[in-house]
Design a protein that fits this description.
With about 350 residues, the chain is α/β, with parallel strands linked by helices. The chain has two domains: about 240 residues, Alpha-Beta Barrel (TIM Barrel); about 70 residues, no CATH class. It is about 45% helix and about 15% strand. The chain has twelve helices and eleven strands. The strands form two sheets. Strands 1-2-3-4-5-6-8-9 form an eight-stranded parallel β-barrel, surrounded by seven helices. Helix 2 links the parallel strand 1 and strand 2. Helix 8 packs across helix 12 and helix 10 packs antiparallel against helix 11. It binds flavin mononucleotide. The site of flavin mononucleotide (FMN) has 27 residues, from strand 9.
């Protein structure tokens, strides 16, 4: 395993040394060589991509998504068989079996649990921390970030609307300016959304980030099991093809999803109309209506990632998709990002 490991760029230049220094805290927190996380991506972030990311010196995260506890158990075991490096598990807070999933992570002594999809329900943080794992949470606003820190989370991810998948309304650059000055000294903060090159990584590290999280940039890694059609769609697309879904009914506040424009986007609009009509007719309650929307996304993403139906499925992608130009090993992607970041720091030193 260690033969594929990429150590942080050798400290030959001032830029590389600065980069290593800026990443030290984040890398120490994660137990990786470089403070770059591959954000969990449902159906994509499974044993192959996650182990490859961690073996390459970064930090892979398994996307649990809608997995049952038994499936997650098998996925963690398989990942451990492929890497002896640290990796994390991403759990969705509204999963009905959250407690059982936390227990599965604990039984494998997973070192880091990432909670996504809303504030953690009562007891979840305590249960994770009792297992000895560190908790990383997504922080949508400064006020919620402070609340999360008070309740004991160990690190935060702030993710802007440039990202692929479910998104909030604010851009990465604004979130970083609002949050980093207030939080970066308190807990490690990882910046996500729209990062395609190392220069941006250098910028956020300079602003106080402990590290970064990228998703879109890793989808076309050689080790990613995403269908060849899915990867081809990424390689062809430009930034403006990655659009946010539209909400058609104010009573049905669906979380927007950023994905490549296709017929699937229209299917989603039609699905919302159907669900809104069921709400009108009183045949479905609000919570159930929202759950139906979430199930729609999970199914549509699987259709595109696994079956390769990139026309009718959901090709979730961030705006950095325009910077994905070829399929290449994950170690090569990390090496490029690190080189670009080191060169950016070199220029600052000049
Ligand atoms: C195809 C795809 C699926 C994703 N699925 C999830 C998910 O299941 N859970 C999650 O927390 N984030 C998910 N994300 C977000 C990523 O973990 C990551 O935070 C995001 O991709 C970072 O922004 P970027 O795409 O601009 O690099 C997904 C992103 C993509 C592109």
């Amino acid at each position: 395993m260690t033969d594929t490991l990429i150590a942080p760029a050798p400290s030959t230049s001032t830029g590389a040394r600065r980069l290593a220094t800026r990443m030290e805290r984040g890398a120490r927190f994660l137990g990786s060589d470089v403070a770059i996380m591959a954000g969990a991506m449902s159906w994509v972030s499974e044993r192959n991509l996650v182990s490859a990311m961690s073996n390459a010196g970064g930090f892979g995260v398994i996307a649990c998504g809608a997995m049952t506890p038994a499936l997650l158990d098998a996925e963690i075991a398989a990942t451990k068989a492929m890497t002896d490096r640290a990796f994390g598990v991403n759990l969705i807070t509204m999963h009905p079996d959250l407690t059982a999933l936390i227990q599965v992570c604990a039984s494998h002594r997973v070192g880091h649990v990432v909670l996504a999809g809303g504030l953690p329900p009562k007891g979840a943080l305590e249960a994770i921390k009792a297992s000895g794992a560190k908790v990383i949470c997504f922080a949508p606003t400064l006020a919620l970030a402070k609340k999360l820190v008070r309740s004991g989370v160990d690190a935060l991810v702030i993710e802007g609307m440039e990202a692929g998948g479910h998104i909030g309304p604010v851009s990465t650059s604004v979130l970083a300016q609002e949050m980093l000055p207030e939080l970066a000294q308190v807990v490690p903060v990882f910046v996500a959304g729209g990062i395609g090159r190392g220069e941006a990584i250098a910028g956020y590290l300079d602003m106080g980030a402990a590290g970064v999280q990228l998703g879109t940039r890793f989808v076309c890694a050689t080790e990613s099991i995403a269908h060849p059609n899915f990867k081809r769609a990424f390689i062809r697309a430009s930034a403006r093809d990655a659009v946010a879904s539209v909400q058609i009914d104010p009573r049905l506040p669906v979380i927007p999803v950023r994905a490549l424009k296709n017929a699937g986007g229209e299917l989603f609009t039609a699905r919302q109309r159907e669900v809104a009509q069921s709400l009108d007719e009183g045949t479905v309650a609000m919570a159930e209506a929202q759950l139906q929307i979430e199930h729609y996304w999970a199914g549509a993403l699987r259709r595109a990632v696994i079956d390769g139906d990139v026309e009718h499925g959901s090709v979730m992608a961030g705006q950095s998709v325009g910077m994905v130009t070829k399929e290449e090993p994950i170690a090569a992607i990390i090496a490029s990002l690190m080189d670009e970041a080191a060169q950016a720091f070199d220029k600052r030193a000049a």
